[in-house]
Design a protein that fits this description.
The chain is an alpha/beta fold. It contains ten helices and ten strands.
């Protein structure tokens, strides 16, 4: 009975939230059922994180859950990369790999990956977040040669990476998807900057009634784990939707794992269910998908007969 009441409450809250969302959000071009703005950066999201930029490295503050998430996402990235690549240098197992951390914020994931030996470029559209990341990096001289930061969007990076023809071995978009203005442009840009066979790692939030109750009602409005207004439920994406988008863009999804945050213990754990948070690993296919229609045997015979008739 309790779960039924919770579901009914979630349904009513979602209906009210959607009505408010329609009143406040500007209309965007819709293609294939998704909003398209031709830019991945949402100015409203930039303003949110601009206000929080100075608090990235406060492990007890607004980003505490992201600090704790490193206990799961860092091994998830490391182990999957080691399965793809044969690099296994003691102490620095990711040596020789070039990684792009998109939406790096203050560098919470960028620095630990560099400590594993990778060369990491962290990018973020919020200039103040990049400044905080660079300031924190300055306290660890050993990482300076392996970490770089830039204040830019992913699509701004695409053109120069295509000219350099170098590409990245891996791209990370951790807790980024739910803040984007245009998912299609973002995934296409990911495909462009990765090497063939390169890895794409995503952690994000599913769009379910449970994620609305836990991720917005409880996390933002009751427990205040994150500031109110951090998330927009309409921007959440289900694993099925994300996998479909990735597969159609030239990626092959390797695995999807559910995650859950415990606000009491402050720890994350892997879950069978992907109803709230989940992590995904995909590989850029080495060959582009075949777009031409496969010929039937009858068509092949007709073509052969026409060719024979020409001689």
């Amino acid at each position: 009975m309790w779960s039924s009441s919770l579901g009914q409450l979630a349904g009513r809250l979602l209906t009210a939230a959607r009505q408010q969302h329609r009143r406040l959000k500007p209309r965007l071009l819709v293609q294939n059922g998704r909003m398209v703005s031709h830019s991945t950066v949402d100015p409203a999201e930039v303003r949110k994180f601009q206000a929080l930029a100075s608090r990235w490295w406060d492990e007890q503050g607004e980003f505490a859950a992201l600090h704790a998430m490193n206990e799961l996402r860092l091994p998830f990235i490391r182990d999957n990369l080691l399965n793809v690549h044969s690099v296994r240098q003691m102490g620095t197992p990711l040596s020789g790999l070039r990684i792009l951390d998109v939406g790096c914020g203050g560098g919470l994931l960028t620095e630990p990956l560099a400590r594993l030996g990778a060369d990491v470029l962290g990018i973020d559209p919020v200039q103040d977040s990049v400044r905080i990341a660079e300031l924190h990096l300055s306290h660890d001289p050993a990482l300076r040669g392996r970490v770089q930061y830039r204040a830019c969007s992913l699509e701004e990076l695409v053109e120069e990476e295509e000219e350099a023809k170098e590409g990245f071995h891996a791209l990370l978009a951790s807790e980024v998807m739910e803040h984007l203005a245009d998912l299609n442009t973002f995934i296409d840009s990911c495909h462009h900057v990765l090497k063939p066979g390169g890895s794409l790692f995503i952690t994000t939030i599913n769009r379910t009634q449970l994620s609305y109750v836990l991720g917005i009602i409880f996390a933002e409005q009751i427990l205040r784990i994150v500031p109110r207004g951090t998330h927009d439920w309409e921007k959440f994406i289900s694993p099925v939707e994300l996998e479909t988008l990735l597969e159609s863009t030239g990626f092959s999804v390797e695995c999807i794992r559910g995650m859950l945050y415990n606000p009491v213990s402050g720890a994350w754990s892997w879950q069978q269910s992907t109803a709230v948070n989940y992590a995904l690993h995909a590989l850029k296919r080495r060959e582009e998908p075949q777009l031409h229609r496969v010929q039937t045997e009858g068509e092949k015979v007709d073509e052969a007969a026409q060719a024979a008739g020409q001689y």
